[in-house]
Structure of ABC transporter related protein:
Amino acid sequence: MPRTDPKKPPCPADACIAFEDLTAGYGSHAAIHHLSGKLERGTLTAVVGPNGSGKSTLVKCITGLLAPMSGTCRVATDASLAYLPQQSELDRSFPARVVDLVALGLWRERGLLGRHRAEDRRAVADALRAVGLEGFETRPIDSLSGGQLQRALFARVLVQDADLILLDEPFNAIDEKTIRDLIGLILHWHGEGRTVVVVVHDLDLVRAHFPQALLLARRPIAWGSTAEVVTPDNMRRARQFQEAWDEKAPWCEPSPAPVRGVA
Ligand SMILES: Nc1ncnc2c1ncn2[C@@H]1O[C@H](COP(=O)(O)OP(=O)(O)OP(=O)(O)O)[C@@H](O)[C@H]1O
């Protein structure tokens, strides 16, 4: 994991995540190029951009699941991390009950096979209540609707009690009521001073609820306050850049345009 590599300089004190000329991707194929900047502690940031613009790749870099091709991605060493991947990456056929799925959020404290204490069972019950899934404890996860599964996954994040929360497209194929409830949890986490990073496609949601935004199109297009980043002009630039992207281009060409609003 980048954040535990003793050869790398530590994350700046006010930052939860710091990128320095980060280029990342798969094999020899880069999906994000030359990202520099930092996310301050306690911020709520939406990562936006067209399909294939590198949003999930960036989140995977932050988790340490993907190592940079060049540059660095550093996470504060004292920040515990909770990560919710896209639902499409989850195996719903895994034979588990809702309560087991949520209790997985405690694995750091208890280990995967550790016995759960009364306080753990309380934490899981509280989390299920908070996401509106009281009474679903023994339901097999493959019997849940998409929205109910997302609520259960948010309950797992709740019990993780992490300083840094990364959510990859948590509102995909979810109804409006569920989105409202999940947004409420995200705002609550932000209010508690946690750093929250969410990949979001719905720009109305971003404008309404996210103070900060990072707009990607294989490279950073804009980063800063949402009002300055999610503008028609920037969205058009992102689309144009993404559509003009040459998959066979050398992966390390410098960014041709300045990035506005980078911290
Ligand atoms: N495991 C992988 N192996 C090879 N290429 C990948 C892999 N995952 C993603 N890519 C490629 O990296 C690029 C960026 O993908 P990424 O999933 O990060 O984009 P995204 O912005 O999250 O897209 P979307 O909005 O469609 O979810 C795409 O060209 C994609 O095909």
In short: Residues 26, 29, 31, 49, 51-57 surround adenosine-5'-triphosphate (CB under 6 Å). The chain has a mean pLDDT of 89. Residues 83 and 257 are 31 Å apart (CA to CA). Residues 91-160 form one domain.
